Amino acid sequence: MLTTFPRLMLDHAKQRPDAPALREKVYGIWQTTTWAELALLVRRLACGLAHAGVKRGDHVVVVGENRPRLYATMLAAQALGAIPIPLYQDAAAPEYTFPINNAEVAYAIVEDQEQVDKMLELRENCPQLRRIWFDDPRGLRNYNEPGLDSIDALVAAGQAHDAANAALFDSEVERCQPEDVAALFFTSGTTGNPKGVVHTHFTLLDRANAGKNFDHLSEREEVLAYLPPAWIGQNIFSYAQWLACGYVVNCPESAATVMIDLKEIGPTYYFAPPRIFEGLLTTVMIRMEDASRLKRWLFHRFMEVAKRVGPTLMDGKPVGLASRLTYALGNFVIYGPLRNTLGFNRVRVAYTAGEAIGPDLFTFYRSIGINLKQLYGSTETAVFVCLQPDDAVRADTVGVPIEGVEIRVTDSGEILVKSAGLLKGYYKNPAATAEVLSADGWYHTGDAGFLDASGQLKIIDRAKDVGRLVGGPADGAMFAPKYVENKLKFFPFIKEAVAFGDKREKVCAFVNIDFEAVGNWAERRNLPYAGYTDLAGKLEVLELVRECVEKVNADLAADAMLTGSQISRFLVLHKELDADDGEMTRTRKVKRGYINEKYQVLVDALYGGKTEQFIETAVKFEDGRSGSVSATLPIVDAKVFPAMKKAA
Question: pLDDT, tens digit, for every residue of 575-594?
Fold first, then answer.
């Protein structure tokens, strides 16, 4: 049915006024906002924005964690025909300059003092930014800046404006049409300035409903909204589908309480990028290392059973009686308590997206009874392109094209998508729009892949990142860096990796250790260290990482297509890759080109046969200060295995 976000919100308020719409944990207690309360809040906020001068077509920046009143402000802006622009709350102030100036933003609604300070810092470079409203007043009592006020004051002004203009809100909502622009999402900008992706109410809701129908979602679902609202993945799950389905969105108290809140809520519908699942698995493995010998034995014994039997049971396929009984015992002793510890006891559907997930990581969760599936999509496609059916989930695919989607693969291997959920265009960037949207409506994803015999889509890597080895024994072999990096990141000791090899004779890699996991490992071995740089350079740690690399190489040797991508040499970086240092996007995707350029001396050392290399790197600290970190990094050779021949 053709509709808009504000109309859906009002429909829920009319049909289920007392049902919970949003929950937020405040000082350890969950506070509920019903649909009726939300509708009243949105009405007053919309009238307050109108009183402040916000009109149809204006852009309104929204910055903060997931907070019910920030969600309400997005609905209020849309009710007036204005366009909310969610931005990443952990970005440094200068990162907001381009989006705010590009979209000519005059209004900002932010969460707290930190975000207010950023906006005030920007005013010199963004003079049109004249009004700023904040949700949390802590620390802001003595601020006396022009145009700065609280959301409470906005609500009060809106209540008075509504009393004087009773027909305003309803008439503005009625004017909103499905083809009106609903939101502007800025891409992560892995190469150059971010691009503003324009989506309408129709494009977002078309895909939200397609996902709803595919997984039979209803108003009974519980969702935990803990990822940045600026990421379209979080936005589609906790905003577009929230309004399409009418389920409950739960907002954690803070990033530090997410795991506790996850267990308290017990979501039924869960979404996270691979890095979250990697982090959860690392936590599990650290706890198991600290467990008693008996518990470790039981864990590893039953995990062997789980990997053999669990995925088959999850797919609804027959399993022998003995295996079924052993798995049931494992579920009682290990898997059930583990799901409960992770907060996944009630999960009916869990998705991962954003980048490829390692097959071993994927299989781990499905083997313990969590219905983890992969989806394929992007900001430009409103997320939902391919989803995995419950009875056909495989680690090496991202599912089948869902309702309303067509997929075509070009001769060069690039995936093209056509659906009703495609972006309207890039804001003020017709040249970039023309590059990705063909005249006949096909979107060029930039991903390389193919549809297999069962109709499921396989993604190899970003098309621009897939390369070939040149010279040496693996001359001409395909090189897929993301595939190699994901296999490395399955190990709890490796947090991030960057592989190099295109147009080179062999593959080399940078590795970031997981400071918590490796620190725990070092402490159990009485290995002293003084921070990340010191720990990363320990010979024992280098040997630990070498074991991980060589296990990956052994796996790659069995893959006829990627056997040439085995890692010959690696080094452990002296610092963690960081978005504040420009090395990653805010969604934690590595900026491969930037890293190659920034650490060219290290790349040259890897390929030049050196055994160590000194490096000094500028860094930005959390408080905004700049500094540097330096180290002499050992370069380690890894064993490369001969390609395994398939049995005749």
Answer: 999 988 889 888 778 888 89
